[in-house]
Amino acid sequence: xxxxxxxxxxxxxALLRAAAAYERDPGLREDLLQEMLIAxxxxxxxxxxPARLRPFVFRIAHNKGVDHVARHxxxxxxxxxxxDLPRPDGSxxxxxxxxxxxxxxxxxxxxxxLPYRQVIALLLEDLTYAEIAESLxxxxxxxxxxxxxxxxLLRSLLDHG
Amino acid sequence: MADDFIGSLKADWDRTGAEAEVVRLRRxxxxxxxxxxxxxxxAATMVVFGLIYAALAVRYRDxxxxxxxxxxxxxxxxxxxxSVRMRWxxxxxxxxxxxxxLRSSLRRLEAARRTxxxxxxxxxxxFTLAALVLAAAAAGWVREPWAALAWIVAxxxxxxxxxxxxxxxxxxxxxxxIAGCEALLRQFRAAAGEA
Lengths: 161, 195
Description:
The complex is a heterodimer.
Chain A: H1 2-20, H2 26-43, H3 53-71, H4 92-111, H5 114-123, H6 129-136, H7 140-160
Helix pairs in contact in A: 1-2, 1-3, 2-3, 3-6, 5-7, 6-7
Chain B: H1 4-15, H2 31-60, H3 63-91, H4 98-138, H5 146-193
Helix pairs in contact in B: 2-3, 3-4, 4-5
């Protein structure tokens, strides 16, 4: 349990973002995050090399995300919920702009097909191509191809909505 | 590794995790196991009652007990067995890759579809048994009073109708989920083919 607590402390925000890449409803996103944490806690004894913790954790998190999407496949789409991010020191207008930009990015990422969504989400977490390949169980060359395609799609979505 | 485009998005992306101080492991881990245990208890109860009814049917040469045993053993048991297998499969989730996860989901959904189809057949058997009870009562082969028989037949028919309605609703949902899973698998296959 101590190990999962340490992972939550170090990677909690990243896992929350991973969940946000798959679910826009805040309540369901919290459920998904809990599923991810439980799966990670269960799988931890299988981790051979502690240096590979990040790809290991992200692999489980994203597989849980795919499982979540599969379970909700064919269901009704939920509306994008407005979320209140922690208020920074800046003005309310700046805060509102920050919130809208963050929501717009998350919405655009979620509109990507899963293979492209995963690589973008992992790239935004500063994983290397090799770590992304390890997380997703694909080749490094396929990661490069997917990232190029994903960036083009994401740029188009952000430019044209 | 990240380029200017990704770099320009990083700050917006990181804002999503800013509320992560509330992240903690909350869910009780025993919930899926409790559902599996409930199915196992249900199956065991059906077997025990089915065997008791079968023994009573043989001992007292009672048609009603015999039909009840038929409703419980050959119909109920495979139904609950399929449900247990389905939940066991869900517990044994081992997703190495995203495609593996989707294939596993498809197997789970196919198992659910088979279980629901079996349930639909079980509902038809319930109607048949109800008709058999009425026919046997009309022929004078059943000793129970008509009021008791009417209550039994009504409960079987009601259970069958409710079951059919629920199964129809669930089957439609499962078929949609299967189609959704297959579409997701196609996305991964197409992305893998691009390399």
